[in-house]
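dumping this here before i forget
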Amino acid sequence: MITPVHFQWTVERRVATITLNRPERKNPLTFESYEELIETFRALTTSTDVRCVVLTGSGGNFCSGGDVHDIIGPLVAMRDRGDGEGLRRFTRMTGDLVKAMRGCPQTIVAAVDGVCAGAGAIIAMVSDLRVGTARSRISFLFNRVGLAGCDMGACAFLPRIIGQGRAAELLYLGRSMSGDEASQWGFFNRLVAPDQLSTSATQLAQEIAAGPSFANGITKTMLNQEWSMSLEQAIEAEAQAQALCMQTEDFRRAYRAFLAKQKPVFEGN
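structure:
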């Protein structure tokens, strides 16, 4: 059972909702919340109760990134004492969160409002789908604090969503991408009013959760793996993956439902 203490966790109708819940500071991440998020997404790899995840923040903001006092201050102290290995442990740990999010079979829907900055922009980026608001401000602001834009996979992932030139602009300048830009550039899958954000993201997640979860997990795996494949390799990998899905009961259920002119009820096996 997943029982986090550094963020809120609820499950309803096979959709888990993770709510970053430090609204007084725009929901920043701490060392502890990083570790707990990693553990949570890793635990989801063996979960049969959760088919989709909504990731959101409280108080009208998504996530302001690493907490200035709880993370940035200690990192500067590591720098000052020459603790390069400690800095590498941290940067590798933040990458572990990305790998855990991409590695869990559940589809992750980020519900983005208000501030979405730094590591917050990253965890929105590596979610499978993003629902956002026009007042959102997505900032890959590493450049503005003296760091490179290549943080937590940003240089690998962001160009695949919005294109190389647009990604380069955001990563070199560290400027905010507005909600309207995020929608026009393909970062957001859907743009909704703030008071509809939670409902829209949850409805999308429930629609996905009602689908064939094993097959959806295969789709996520292929989306991850085919980045580094040739066309020939991708076609062969998809042939094997699809043949595997054809051996599931869900494939048979869909066929029988079609013959009976009914909507299939998928059970994920």
